[in-house]
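Supplementary Methods S3. Input chains for the assembly prediction are listed below.
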Amino acid sequence: MGRPFEQIVSEHGPAVLRVCRAVVGPVDAEDAWSETFLAALRAYPELPADANVEAWLVTIAHRKAIDLTRARARRPVAVAEPPEPEAARTGGAADPSGTGDTDELWQALRALPDKQRASVAYHYLGGLPYREIASITGGSEDAARRAAADGIKKLRASYLPARNTEGARR
Amino acid sequence: MSESAEPTGTTEPGTINGAQRTELFAALRADEDTAMARLRGRLAVEAEREGLLDVAYRTLDSPVGTLLLAATGRGVVRVAYPSQDHDAALAQLAEVVGPRVLYAPARLDEVCRQLEQYFAGRRTAFDVPLDLRLSRGFRLAVLTHLSDIGYGRTESYREVAVAAGSPKAVRAVGTACATNPLPLVLPCHRVVRSDGSFGQYAGGAEAKQILLRMEAAA
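Predicted structure tokens for the full assembly:
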């Protein structure tokens, strides 16, 4: 029998939230997280005792992200323009603590092809090995590794300079 | 080829070390604690609505320490004192009832309200559905009898043994009280030694004194 599900939420909830924020963006992340953990709770009694819980959760999150993205695409009117960074920062939803530039990072992540963004998120935020990522996103382990490497390369080129410039401006 | 989830010590264009990763993804941690609190609350509500909770629990601060309260769909199944290790109590519930155990306070609202009234001296008996599945046999017979010992009264271990149908099982009554899964609600604190001294208690001797003095003063 498994451990209390509450422990799964405590141990993996924050990392899965970061994955969701990176894959579907800050606006949809909480819906993705909620649907992921509700589905996980439903299936939890059947989870084998030796399963990789993080990989299991990321696999569910991956499916929920696809569902959410498709639902968004079906009703394009509902897709709001991303708020201006300044408005978002003072608006509370994005980053009241001022620890980072949520919207700028999301813009950079969103510019990546889906597979690169997913590979980056699942490896660097979810902690999954590329073998597991390949079984989630399809393709080979090497392809997942290359996708993550390409994604990181682009992120470092597009996001960090902008962020550092702005940091120096403040 | 070895694989690591913690890439370190490299600055190749397509890879990053731990510090670089922290810098690159810092924005994803924005507001994380409040977001997690909000998400956990939402999960508890949705899980309850979908009927997915084997056990809902919460804690309650009281004059005898922080209590763990847990309920199944049938009723309150566990009350645990701090000295009884809440994590162990939850692990046991996951084992016996089912692993879908979540911090979900709503299911415990009524028993909380009644316990608060009890500690305020405004309630002498509890009226909530109970799930007694953690006890069986003679221990269950003892627990069932405990509700007959009214507020402010006490019985000796020997008297309880007689009432539970096994006059010689005095020690077993002690064990049944010590392992009572529902202390306070099933008042094992009202079982004392024949010489009138308080004796042991699931929540510690001090808690037993506090409760018996509170009830005697009311």
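Chain A touches chain B through 51 residues (CB under 8 Å). The longest helix of chain A spans residues 53-74.
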